Amino acid sequence: MCMRSCAMDRPGRSPPASGSQRAWSLSTWCCFGFCCWGCSGSASARWLRRRRPSGSGPGLCLSASSPSPRPCRTRRYFAMAETPIRPEQHVRAGQRPVRVLALLALVAVAGVLGSHAVVTGQLVSSLNPAEQVLEDFSKGEPDGFPQGWQASRSESSTRKAYTVTREGNQAFLRTRGIDDQMRIKKRIAWDPKEYPIVTWRWRLRAASQGGGLIAAVFITLDTDLLFIPVFTKYIWSPSGTAGALKEGGMFSGSEIIVRAGGQPVGQWVEERVNAYADFLKIHKHEPAPQAWGISVVTGPGAELDFGSIKLAKQ
After folding, report:
1. How far apart are CA 275 and CA 197, in angstroms?
2. CA distance linking residue 195 with residue 298, whole number of Å
3. Quick one: pLDDT at residue 278?
4. What is the pLDDT of residue 212?
């Protein structure tokens, strides 16, 4: 139908012979003109009637083949085309950009709020249950490295040393210690004041022969002025006393022994710490409103499994 309108612009072609054909062609253009606006616009312009004064009889039309005025039979198709715009219509039309801008502003605000998880890492649920799961190690990448975690150094070696494993329906992180600095980290935000308690499970499979740490969990509730994470390191030490605190320096975090000795082996044990209270005790000020994240490490020569890491209110 669009081709029929375009044909009217070609030289040597005359318009349809009858008024009914003209009406059909023009009404067709009105319905489908958007598909060929440029070509059918000039053809339709030749058939638009001149608006007659009120009470002057039938309207007059001009066409290329018949330059003399004649009665127009297609008035009903173009009554709306020549209706003047009332002043109030201009006001409503002018309000459309304002409405569009308001809608865009709402979308932008929603985008900023929704991007919080992108900027600060994964955000735990805000449904306010008594307990929340920070990590259950149920998802791994194709090579077994836990999904959502990052290596602090030596990417290839770290990915081989930390793999997601299953025993029946239970998922956990199997680790083989190479270097006590080769830890993995995960950005995840939560309110440490609302959820001060952090719990986790771990299982020692083989202890290291040296005197270094067996394993550790890092809980980071704040950053310093240079945006470097400020963490508390909860360690399983082959020696020392459980509960002992060693304050960190400018470039090291504080350490708290949560378990001492090389036992038990092959058995799951659970740890429970008040990370918020420990932060206040060590740093003498409130942590950030949203925590930075967590990290885990296994000491050289040790083999250990990490189970679920959870939050609790008390």
Report:
1. 6
2. 26
3. 97
4. 84
Q: Residue for token digits 């952090």?
A: 198
- Whether the CB-CB separation of 164 and 145 falls below 8 Å is answered with yes
Q: Please list the alpha-helical segments (H only) found in the chain.
A: 2-7, 19-32, 37-45, 75-78, 87-114, 116-120, 155-161, 275-283
CA distances from 204 to 67, 191, 260 (A): 100, 30, 12
Cis peptide before 264 (omega within 30 of 0): yes
pTM over 0.85: no
Place of tokens 């008390």: 314
Structure confidence by residue, pLDDT tens digits, 147-187:
999 998 889 999 999 999 999 999 999 999 988 889 999 99
Ranges of residues in the chain with a pLDDT under 70 are: 1-127
| Pairing label, strands 184-189, 150-151 | antiparallel
* 224-233 contacts, C-beta under 8 A, 24 or more apart: 229/292, 229/293, 230/283, 230/292, 231/292, 231/295, 232/256, 232/275, 232/278, 232/279, 232/282
Structure tokens at 284: 């003498």
Single-letter code of the amino acid located at 287: P
Contact between 69 and 61 (Cβ < 8 Å): yes
Residues 184, 270: Cα–Cα separation, whole Å: 20
* Rounded distance between C-alpha atoms, residue 240 and residue 238, angstroms: 7
DSSP per-residue letters across 38-58: HHHHHHHHTTPPBPPPTTS-S
Measure the CA dihedral 118/124/128/130, to 10°: -170
3-state secondary structure of 219: strand
Q: Which contiguous run of DSSP H or E holds residue 204?
A: strand 197-206
- Using the structure block, give the residue that is written with the tokens 């959502």: 148
Domains and CATH numbers, the chain: 2-78 (no CATH), 122-312 (2.60.120)
Q: Is 149 helix (H, G, I), strand (E, B) or coil?
A: coil
**pLDDT of res. 180:** 83
